[in-house]
């Protein structure tokens, strides 16, 4: 399938912020934080919990603001302005991570929380641009390719980081902490270079009529949408199901590295595992888009939820590096595909002129789930002293999401 220039610009943004996703959220900063916190006397289980709490709190702010921000972005030409604002906020604070002194581990968490706000806010408007760049027939393929390119971009930027790591900071030029800081700068530069085409040329084709006071008018529109929410029953039930199952997806993504560290897996091996997961996710994200075209988006979303349920159950037996490899590979097969098809499935349901407003609700439920999941893992980990039990506790969320989505989703939307 050939994509238009605008679709490629949209897809390339996923490549752009992949550096933040893999280096800051998943691979380097969690390990770096545990190292500096441990050096300050913080216990391993406590630092794992604090990392979970930071992810929860960081998403809370953007979650509360998402519907209003989405409504504000639905006015003509507003979507690109908001995308730029939050993207640059994320980029600047990602650079800030490299400037925080090693001893100030609490400040490191604060700056990380701010960068999450920028990253998550940018993704809200990036996601809502999907309705502007693709029609219903092309959404699955465009969305899946976006995730696939995001993972591929993550692989490339991760390899650059690994070169620095495996050469001892480019033959001693950087210390071990310096390599981590280098990765944060790298993530920011990566974001700037490859995100620039969409930031500069993104075109909003659907919008509501301009208003003399967009803020007040947006509040009125939100109130009207909530008051008449019964008119969007299928969309509402999808969001409820999405709230539960995406919780587990996001939590496993953000907590995987610290769980690996708690199992005693060395940092270098964790980096290799994460690299392989990224590589696996590239073809499987595209495969999910192809399977959705062949068998329906609904059926393949259900397949992805089921796979994740068994991933959580399997977490109970995590003891060795081999066990961790198996779990990581299973995650790689379904993470990008499930997220991509959820986005395109929702994109078909929303009114196009109000897409950002509705993607705001999509974002708020996704982010609120990201608050709940890490909190559950952190709490269960502290109670039991085992992060594997914390990961397994997420299975109930996938089970609830599976039941709701299976019962309430309509075959006509995606067949």
TrEMBL record:
Top-level taxon: Bacteria
CC terms in the record's Gene Ontology section: plasma membrane
InterPro entries: Atg22-like, ATG22/LtaA_families, MFS_dom, MFS_trans_sf
Major facilitator superfamily (MFS) profile domain: residues covered: 234-415
TM region positions: 12-33, 53-73, 85-102, 108-126, 147-167, 179-199, 235-256, 268-288, 300-318, 358-377, 389-408
Protein's membrane topology: Multi-pass membrane protein
Localization: Cell membrane
Pfam families linked to this entry: ATG22
Record key words, sorted: Membrane, Transmembrane, Transmembrane helix, Transport
Keyword Transmembrane included in the entry's annotation: yes
Annotated Gene3D superfamilies: MFS general substrate transporter like domains (1.20.1250.20)
GO molecular function: transmembrane transporter activity
Keyword Magnesium found: no
PANTHER family assigned: AUTOPHAGY-RELATED PROTEIN 22 (PTHR23519)
Protein's UniProt name: MFS transporter
Native source species: Limosilactobacillus albertensis
């Amino acid at each position: 399938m050939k994509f238009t220039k605008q679709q490629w610009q949209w897809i390339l943004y996923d490549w752009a912020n992949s550096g933040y996703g893999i280096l800051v959220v998943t691979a380097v900063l969690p390990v770096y934080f545990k190292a500096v916190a441990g050096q300050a006397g913080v216990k391993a289980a406590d630092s794992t919990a604090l990392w979970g709490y930071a992810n929860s709190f960081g998403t809370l702010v953007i979650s509360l603001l998402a519907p209003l921000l989405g409504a504000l972005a639905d006015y003509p030409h507003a979507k690109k302005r908001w995308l730029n604002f939050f993207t640059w906020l994320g980029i600047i604070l990602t650079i800030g991570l490299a400037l925080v002194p090693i001893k100030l581990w609490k400040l490191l968490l604060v700056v990380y929380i701010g960068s999450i706000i920028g990253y998550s806010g940018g993704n809200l408007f990036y996601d809502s641009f999907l309705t502007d760049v693709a029609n219903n027939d092309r959404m699955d393929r465009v969305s899946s390719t976006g995730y696939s390119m995001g993972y591929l971009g993550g692989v490339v930027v991760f390899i650059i980081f690994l070169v620095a790591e495996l050469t001892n900071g480019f033959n001693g030029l950087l210390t071990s902490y310096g390599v981590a800081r280098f990765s944060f700068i790298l993530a920011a530069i990566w974001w700037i270079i490859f995100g620039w085409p969409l930031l500069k040329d993104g075109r909003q084709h659907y919008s509501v009529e301009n208003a003399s006071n967009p803020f007040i008018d947006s509040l009125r529109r939100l109130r009207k949408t909530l008051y008449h929410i019964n008119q969007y029953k299928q969309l509402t039930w999808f969001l409820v199901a999405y709230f539960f199952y995406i919780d587990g997806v996001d939590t496993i993504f953000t907590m995987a590295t610290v769980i690996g560290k708690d199992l005693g897996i060395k940092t270098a091996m964790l980096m290799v595992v994460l690299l392989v997961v990224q590589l696996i996710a590239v073809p499987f994200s595209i495969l999910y888009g192809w399977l959705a075209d062949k068998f329906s988006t609904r059926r393949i979303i259900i397949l992805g939820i089921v796979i994740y349920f068994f991933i959580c159950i399997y977490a109970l037996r995590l003891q060795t590096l081999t066990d961790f490899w198996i779990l990581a590979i299973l995650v790689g097969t379904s993470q990008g595909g499930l997220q991509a098809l959820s986005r395109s499935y929702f994109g078909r349901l929303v009114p196009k002129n109000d897409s950002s407003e509705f993607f705001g609700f999509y974002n708020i439920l996704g982010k609120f789930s990201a608050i709940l999941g890490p909190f559950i893992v952190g709490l269960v980990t502290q109670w039991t002293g085992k992060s594997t039990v914390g990961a397994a506790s997420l299975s109930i969320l996938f089970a609830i999401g599976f039941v709701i989505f299976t019962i309430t989703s309509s075959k006509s939307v995606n067949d």
